[in-house]
Write a structure and sequence with these properties.
Layout lengths: L6 E3 L7 E8 L1 H13 L3 H8 L1 H8 E4 L6 E6 L6 E5 L1 E6 L6 H4 L3 H6 L6 E9 L2 E6 L4 E3 L18 H9 L2 H15 L3 H34 L5 E5 L3 E5 L8 E3 L5 E2 L3 E6 L1 E5 L1 H4 L5 E3 L10 H4 L11 E2 L4 E6 L7 E6 L5 H10 L7 H30 L4 H15 L4 H18 L2 E3 L4 H5 L4 E4 L11 E9 L2 E2 L15 H8 L4 E3 L2 E3 L2 H10 L2 E3 L3 H6 L6 E4 L17 H8 L3 E10 L4 E8 L6 E6 L1 H6 L10 H10 L2 E10 L6 H4 L4 H4 L4 E9 L6 H10 L3 E5 L4 H10 L8 E8 L8 E6 L17 E6 H10 L1 H10 E5 L3 H13 L4 E5 L5 H6 L2 E4 L11 E3 L6 H38 L7 H18 L21 H25 L17 H6 L2 H6 L10 H21 L13 H19 L3 H7 L6 H22 L4 H7 L3 H7 ...
Parallel strand pairs: 21-33, 21-38, 33-37, 34-36, 36-37, 38-39, 39-40
Antiparallel strand pairs: 1-2, 2-3, 2-4, 4-5, 6-7, 7-8, 8-9, 10-11, 10-12, 12-19, 13-18, 14-17, 14-19, 15-16, 15-18, 20-40, 22-23, 22-32, 24-25, 26-27, 27-28, 28-29, 29-30, 30-31, 31-32, 34-35, 35-41, 41-42
Length: 1194
């Protein structure tokens, strides 16, 4: 049939996938089953590893509507494949997709269940999400509004058996199983048993870790998933939270609860701890959703989860306290359940994370393929040689397959993991915990780190630096505090005491740190109505604030005829907070309506961003020098809050205030002045940023704070050096038919830079706000990459914008780290290559790394450990590759004389040398400081390949020399059990006839070639281990790694001992024969020269000595390439010289962009210029972002 075009599910979302439909084909299934039987199950394994092959081998293509199986491929860079079985659900009732039925509420849809027919609804499940077939769009969709399912975030803990099967079916373990079977057939039981033992320990450890992670996540999720709730249906009834569906009205208990779903408040208020989702432990006040009839713009708008966050109770958050009035219950409407909730999405991102994309792992597979190709050559060579020498078929099969297990070492995964495990332990010792060990290697490549500001670069708390009041449109001199008896009855102090969202929890004031500091600075006292009082009164039972008695003027003497109650009322000074409009990040302000005790008229108090507050005030009340004063404070790094006040009309009664529009309340205010808050840098911040700068690691600030404050902090901490220029990009969206545009201006004295762009030798930094970032992302996509290349300060950034910035930086090939305190940083922490949370709250479960140290000193520590782990991985991989090749060379040479290494020789090499060395060479700690040089990111690079190739050639050369030289010795003859080359007299008496008549060793293990190669190759393993065990500048020197030093010295002593002082028991065990002492001396010199050549070639200073000392023609061409630097420095140059001489093009996109921009005369943009987006043609939007033009401002 004709193929249907690809369908897209989750279009334009993070998990977008292409979808194809297939129908099971019986004859194809039969053919595949036969193939599985013929291959002994190997084909089944192959189809298990490759789901796309499985579907295409057993099914035929069909339309998605008729599909029995769907094949999905992610559209991201990873191109992962998934298969899912399409199931059918019988849904009694009308068609839920019918257009007319859509107008009816979900409750009505599910009420109509008595219709005579049943509708078949097709769906499939992937990653805990159900996709339903929708005939209207002819595709599968996530339709949570129609099919709710059980309200439960089900984290199923797999059984040990299921986890075991999944772990064992890993390709490496299958290869190990194949190797063990082969070795057992070859009677090589000892190493087979050792590999089985290692594999069992590895599998058991892995199973324990995975099971523990599942159990921890399950316990964290299910602890409060199933609770009893009160639901308002026909009556208020008790129900399990699993039965909740969107549309249900649930009652929030007064003593608090853990929310089992996402719900929007429709009555009452709640105080909520949202640390589960945001990492911020500061309680948040949630108010009820405004009614549409109130005239509020927000109330008239349709409900949106993003826009109405402050009215939404999120799943997993802890409701600490509720407030209700007039006997009303606090109610909320359920809007999302199960995995659709905010908590469910977080859990799903943990359960199904994106794979780690790192060049090292891709190159490792390519390198293994090269080893497989080498093994294939040896496989063919051994078969041809064996057939030519009439070797039995069984021996041919075993020995030829044995070549493969020698070339591709089964112990490689365990060896590669060792360095990461050791690095994880070292990180744990310094208080950094890791839940994704593979990310440690990636952290070694970080070349850019983003930092949150508040709580990360600066202290958590804010200190009140001072206040600057305004009277009659003029600023007073700044004052240290407002705790004065002269100011106690001023509107300025009244605003500070009332305009906040603080609340008493267990007798302690809680709320936003800024509000807390501001209120504490007044010295006032806050009193809230008790539950009994609120239940007896209407909503007008207010929170009351009053000054301490010591600030009040002396009380007049009471006359005897005065009524006591009237006297108390007249002498008391209390302000009741009648209504609160909570702080909105979109509006950048909050407002309260308050009434002074005894006054008939009420007051409105406003607090917020200075620019916003000033725009809402009468012009004559705002000082003329307002902008200059504000800029002066922000440049010094202060956080500035503006206050305003308005006397309300007497006709506004307490009841009317509850329904008044916020915009009406916040108009025509009188400007009161500024509160100046100081956010001090943490003591470690400047030093750490200086270390990162010296290491050529870029630093970027991503904050929700004010732009100028962020720039000032960036300068104070050294992120922007004093001499560097800061260019602010102000972007405006399209408006009234005008295109989007960016205005460029300088942060410092713009008049100095008018019409003059920074010179190429000058350093410049871009700064922009979250609004500008959103406009640039949407309308100037081709400019975005250029801006992030020098973007240093990103202010007023929303959580999703932080994530978008991380993605933009990664798109130009930066390895990005993110360090935040957990508040609103979860998405960015997850998306970065290395996310470090400074919060130990539950939100840190989304971050790969969590630091107990609450400052950024953990960042260089993590990078240093990452670099050490990465270099360790390279060292181990190179060593294991050389180990395979050295053994491959030995076996190949011995195959030429129909010999091989003995079982105990293999065992000694594989266990006593290789395993001991590989697990101790990984113990080198990280270097004590960060250096500017970064380790290579992959194995397929000039220096590393050159290093491996030269060592292979060296080992090949010296083994070949030993193999051929021994055959040309005067004492050499074909070895027999009666041979004794150590005793010359006996050797003279043995004739050729005697030699030929003796019974030979069946496997021909004992011979002079075998013994010579065993000695030389055993020392070669130790030599390459030492030359590959690199220290400075990424790891501590190997001599500080005492387990490795002791292991190497011990092995050297043992090897020299058995070579110069043969012990018959050891010789018999290792199946080596006695050779003359002079040949041992020759072997000793071969080993010494081999060691010297290997060490000198691998080191920077040795190339001159090697060039003059080594006369082998094999090395002359390579050594003539360059006369300076070691392998790591000149290897790449030498290879490129051999291939072709041409200018090197940078691989990283950001370096390529930097080269382009360095010759662009229009970059960076000049001050007072505007960049305007060109209008795309109607119906033909630009494919790759908007084009733009630069214009000078008139």
């Amino acid at each position: 049939m004709e193929k249907e075009e690809l369908k897209i599910v989750n279009k334009d979302e993070e998990d977008e996938m292409e979808l194809q439909g297939y129908r099971v084909c019986r004859w194809r299934v039969a053919v595949v089953s036969l193939g599985v039987l013929c291959t002994g199950g190997f084909l089944l394994l192959l189809l298990y590893w490759m789901p796309e092959w499985c579907v295409k081998a057993t099914c035929t293509r069909t339309t998605v509507r008729e599909a029995e199986v769907v094949l999905l491929q992610s559209t991201d860079d990873f191109k992962r494949w998934f298969l899912a079985k399409v199931r059918v659900m019988l849904a009694p009732g009308r068609n839920p997709f019918d257009t007319q039925i859509k107008k009816v509420s979900a409750l009505v849809i599910f009420a109509n269940i008595f219709i005579s027919f049943s509708l078949q609804i097709r769906y499939f499940t992937l990653h805990s999400t159900k996709y339903y077939w929708n005939d209207e769009v002819h595709n599968f969709e996530v339709l949570t509004r129609l099919f709710f399912g059980v309200n439960e975030i089900a984290v199923k803990v797999p059984s040990v058996f299921k986890l075991l099967i999944k772990e064992v079916l890993n390709p490496f373990y299958i290869f190990q199983l194949f190797s063990v079977i082969l070795w057992s057939a070859d009677e090589y039981y000892y190493y087979a048993a050792a590999i089985v033992f290692m594999s069992v320990i590895s599998i058991a450890t892995s199973l324990y870790t995975i099971k523990k992670q599942y159990v921890t996540l399950h316990d964290m999720v299910s602890a409060h998933s199933i609770v009893r709730v009160s639901v308002c249906r026909a009556n208020i009834e008790e129900a399990l939270s699993t039965d909740l569906v969107p549309g249900d009205v649930m009652v929030i208990p007064s003593n608090g609860t853990i929310m089992p779903c996402d719900a929007v408040l429709i009555s009452g208020t709640c105080i909520v701890n949202e640390s589960m989702l945001t990492g911020e432990s500061v309680p948040v006040t949630k108010t009820n959703l405004p009614n549409p009839g109130e005239g509020d713009k927000e109330g008239d708008a349709a409900y949106s989860m993003e826009e109405h966050k402050r009215h939404t109770l999120f799943c997993g958050t802890h409701v600490i306290q509720t407030r209700f009035y007039s006997g009303e219950l606090v109610k909320a409407v359920v809007v999302r359940t199960g995995f659709s909730t905010a908590k469910g999405q977080l859990v799903r991102s943990i359960l199904y994370p994106k794979p780690t994309d790192f060049k090292l792992y891709r190159d490792a597979y390519l390198f293994l393929l090269c080893l497989v190709a080498i093994a294939g050559i040896g496989f063919v060579y051994s078969i041809v040689l064996s057939i030519m020498n009439n070797v039995p078929a069984k021996t041919i099969i075993i020995e030829s397959l044995d070549i493969i297990t020698i070339t591709v070492p089964p112990a490689l995964p365990a060896a590669m993991t060792a360095g990461i495990v050791y690095a994880q332990r070292r990180l744990k010792r310094i208080g950094i915990f890791c839940i994704s060990p593979q990310r440690i290697n990636i952290c070694g490549q970080l070349n850019l780190v983003c930092f949150d500001k508040t709580g990360t670069l600066t202290e958590d708390g804010l200190d009140l630096w001072g206040v600057q009041r305004v009277e009659k449109g003029t600023f007073h001199l700044s004052e240290e505090n407002a705790y004065k008896d002269t100011l106690v009855k001023s509107q300025f102090v009244a605003c500070m005491a009332t305009c906040h969202s603080l609340t008493n929890i267990d007798g302690k004031l809680s709320g936003d740190p800024l509000d807390l500091k501001m209120f504490e600075a007044t010295g006032w006292i806050l009193e809230e109505a008790t539950e009994e009082e609120t239940s007896l009164h209407n909503r007008i039972m207010p929170t009351v604030v009053r000054p301490p008695k010591q600030l009040m003027p002396p009380e007049p003497v009471m006359s005897p005829e005065q009524d006591m109650e009237l006297y108390d009322l007249s002498s008391a000074y209390e302000i009741g907070i009648v209504r609160q409009f909570p702080f909105s990040s979109a509006l950048q302000r909050m407002c309260v309506v308050a009434r002074l005790l005894g006054e008939k008229r009420m007051d409105a108090y406003l607090k917020g961003a200075p620019e916003v507050v000033a725009s809402l005030c009468k012009k004559d009340t705002v000082p003329e020098d307002f902008a200059e004063v504000l800029e002066d404070y922000t440049k010094q790094g202060f956080r500035v809050i503006a206050l305003a006040h308005r006397r309300l009309e007497s006709k506004l009664t307490w009841h009317k205030v509850q329904n008044v529009n916020r915009d009406q309340m916040e108009a025509n205010m009188e400007f009161l002045g500024l509160i100046i808050m100081q956010n001090k840098l943490k003591a470690e911040t400047s030093g750490v940023l200086q270390d990162l700068r010296r290491a050529h690691i870029r630093t970027v600030m991503v904050t929700g704070d004010n732009m100028l404050t962020a720039i000032s902090v960036a300068r104070d901490c050294g992120m922007i050096p004093p001499q560097d220029q800061v260019i602010i990009a102000d972007a405006l969206p399209p408006k009234d038919g005008q295109a989007a545009k960016i205005t460029w201006r300088y942060a410092d004295n713009p008049s100095k830079h008018v019409g003059k762009a920074p010179r190429l030798e000058d350093q410049y930094h871009f700064a922009m706000s979250g609004k500008s970032f959103a406009v640039i992302t949407e309308h100037f996509q081709d400019l975005l990459q250029k801006l992030v290349l020098h973007g240093t300060v990103f202010a007023r950034m929303a959580p999703d914008q932080k994530t978008e910035l991380i993605e933009a930086l990664q798109s130009v090939d930066y390895f990005v780290g993110m360090c935040g305190d957990g508040a609103n940083d979860c998405g960015a922490l997850k998306r970065a290559h290395g996310g470090i949370s400074l919060s130990e709250l539950e939100a840190s479960v989304a971050s790969p790394f969590t630091s107990r140290t609450p400052n950024i000193s953990c960042v260089p520590s993590l990078i240093r450990e990452g670099r050490a782990a990465l270099i360790t991985s390279f060292c181990v991989f190179k060593f294991m590759a050389l180990y395979s090749i050295i053994q491959y060379i030995s076996v190949t040479l011995l195959y030429s004389i129909l010999s091989n290494l003995g079982d105990f020789q293999f065992l000694f090499i594989d266990i006593a040398i290789i395993l001991l060395v590989v697990f101790t060479m990984s113990l080198n700690p990280a270097w004590k400081e960060l250096v500017s040089r970064r380790p290579p990111s992959g194995l397929i690079s000039g220096p590393l390949l050159f290093s491996v190739l030269t060592q292979i050639l060296i080992c090949l050369g010296f083994q070949t020399i030993a193999f051929l030289w021994v055959r040309h010795q005067a004492w050499y003859h074909i070895w027999t059990p009666q041979s004794d080359a150590c005793n010359s007299s006996l050797r003279a008496n043995l004739g050729p006839e005697h030699n030929s008549s003796e019974e030979r060793d069946d496997h021909n293990i004992k011979n002079y070639e075998n013994t010579s190669l065993f000695y030389v190759s055993s020392f070669q393993y130790l030599i390459v281990a030492i030359v590959f065990s690199k220290g400075k500048p990424f790891r501590q020197p190997s001599y500080k790694n005492w387990p490795f030093v002791v292991s190497c010295i011990g092995l050297y002593i043992f090897m020299f001992f058995i070579m110069f002082y043969p012990v018959s028991a050891i010789d018999e065990f290792l199946e080596i024969v006695c050779v003359p002492f002079e040949w041992r001396i020759t072997l000793f010199f071969i080993i010494i020269v081999n060691a010297v050549v290997s060490v000198l070639v691998e080191n920077e200073w040795g190339i001159f000595i090697v060039f003059f000392a080594v006369s082998f023609a094999l090395f002359s061409l390579l050594l003539s390439c360059c006369f300076q630097g070691g392998i790591d420095l000149w290897g790449a140059k030498c290879l490129s010289w051999l291939c072709c001489r041409r200018r090197k093009v940078p691989k990283a996109r950001y370096m390529h962009l930097a080269q382009e921009l360095s010759v662009d005369p229009d970059w960076p943009p000049k001050p007072t210029t505007t960049t305007e987006a060109k209008h795309p043609l109607p119906g033909n939007p630009p494919e790759n972002g908007s084009s733009y033009q630069i214009m000078a401002d008139s």
